[in-house]
Every structure is written in structure tokens, then in C-alpha cells.
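Support reply, case 0932

Customer input (verbatim):
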Amino acid sequence: MEMGESGMSSPPIPSGGIMHGNGNGIRHKMMMHMSFYWGNKAEILFRQWPGDQTAMYVLALLFVFVVSILVEWLSHSRLIRSSKYYSNNFTAGLIQSLLHLLRVGLAYVVMLALMSFNVGVFLAAIAGHALGFFFFASRAFNNDAASDLPPITC
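Our regenerated output:
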């Protein structure tokens, strides 16, 4: 049993949910989904974001979509053209490492968003990766240059 602000014990947290307090001794139950679900009432990445507003939910989906495209761009682009612009291979390697850091960090943000188990977030991430691959790695635009970073493997 937990001790509440008044010193009295509060009921145990039910399985399948987390209790959030608001500082006034009032507790609200937040359900954590453990399977895919439809709906715009989700928590994606941050507590109470996007909330229950449809516009914020659409903004969250757009955010996941854009970050997925950025992951594909970083995975398949050639940002370091030639080593003649760098004094040595150490500088080029440092830039490659920073690009790898950025790519992996963004990929983890997408993964954490997917852990909301919201179907809309899942579809936004898949669409972003597919569109990013189409623009930056498919033969549709004759992109036959090698990338700076190897693709992320599953």
C-alpha cells in the first residue's frame, strides 16, 4: 500500500495501469495499452502528449512521419562527398560518427513512439520510412551513390 499525502494508505495500483497524482490527493488512472489500438487518445513520447485533442494527435503523427523520413535520409545520403575537404581521415570519421549518433537517436525516438501501440503512430512511421526510402534509396531517382552510413539492419 502507498501512503497518500494525508498519511492514510491509498489503494494499490491496479494491474494494467499507472496512477498519476495531480498534487491535490486526486489520482487518475492512465491505461497503458499492451496491444495495438485505434484512437486519438494516446501518450506518445511524453506524458500527456498529445492529449485528447485531435489537432495535437495529428501533429504527433506528423512528427513521427517526418522523423522517420529523416532516419531514411541519414541512412542513405552521402553527406561527406570527398576527403579533399577534410584535413585528414580523423575529421571525416568524426563527422560520420556524429551522423551515426543523430541517425540512431532519431531511430530510437521513432521506436519509443511506436511503443505507444497506437495504430496511427505505427502507420505514420511505416509511411515515413517507405517514403524516405523511395526518395533517398530507390532507383526511382537514379540514386546509385553509396551512403556515408550503412543502412540500419533489423
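We compared this against your earlier run and they match. Two observations from our side: The radius of gyration is 21 Å. The helical segments are 54-76, 89-114, 119-136. Please reopen the case if you see a mismatch on your end.
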